[in-house]
Amino acid sequence: MRVFLAVDIPDRIQIGISKLQELLSDRGVRDIRWARPSGIHLTLRFCGEIPAETLRLVSEALAPPAPTLPFRVAIGSLGTFPPRGLPHVLVLSLVDREELKNLAAWVGARCEAAGIPRESRRFHPHLTLGRFRAGARPIALQLLEISTDLAGEEFEVDRFKIFQSHLGPDGARYQALAEFPLLAGSGS
Questions:
Q1: Cis before 51 (ω within 30)
Q2: How many CA atoms does the CB half-sphere of 13 hold within 13 Å?
Q3: Bridge partners of residue 74, in order along the sequence
Q4: In what order do the strands lie in the sheet with 126-132?
Q5: Would you tell me how many other CB atoms lie within 10 Å of the CB of residue 172?
């Protein structure tokens, strides 16, 4: 099964993302497959295809609450991965917070302890808005400077989930398999 660990984002952020996607489309962003706002998450760790036994081990490794208190994360600016050359992904960055880096590192270490190989890429907190189709041209820098109502908007991180990704012709569908509160999570 294809699995990742992520934080849900609130409905109000999803609505703002939908409006931003419409604005970018109206301004000429083409050759992109937009992510459904309801399926956008703050991914902490992508595990890939794993067997059920490894999923059980990951769940057990994550069972003690993460050693961090709930915290808030702010939305930053638009960007692309990679940042130069032909774009692959259009993203909203998140303001780098030590708590978020620490949570991602803790989750990554727990996944490694359960037998999932170490992630080769550094953690870059972001929300994926869409994926560019093959051959897409670099996005105009002016479009990346569009001011959005989302810039500076904050949301609370008080838990994360294991999601299974079901790939289909209409895109991916995500199913939450387990939820893990942070230390003294608020339960909201």
A1: no
A2: 23
A3: 154
A4: 32-34, 126-132, 89-94, 71-81, 154-157
A5: 13
Residue 123 and residue 42: Cα distance in Å, rounded? 11
Helix, strand or coil, per DSSP, at residue 169 = coil
Task: For the chain, state the CA radius of gyration.
Answer: 17
Diameter of the chain by CA atoms? 48
* Domains assigned to the chain: 2-181 (3.90.1140.10)
CA distance linking residue 180 with residue 111, whole number of Å = 14
Stretches where the chain sits below pLDDT 70 are: 136-148, 184-188
> What's the pLDDT tens digit per position in 140-159?
655 666 666 788 899 999 99
Q: Residue 67's closest CA among 183, 187, 158?
A: 183
Are 48 and 3 spatial neighbours (Cβ–Cβ below 8 Å)? Answer: yes
Query: How many angstroms separate the CA atoms of 160 and 41, rounded?
Result: 10
State the pTM of this model. Answer: 0.88
What's the CA gap between 108 and 32, in Å, rounded? Answer: 30
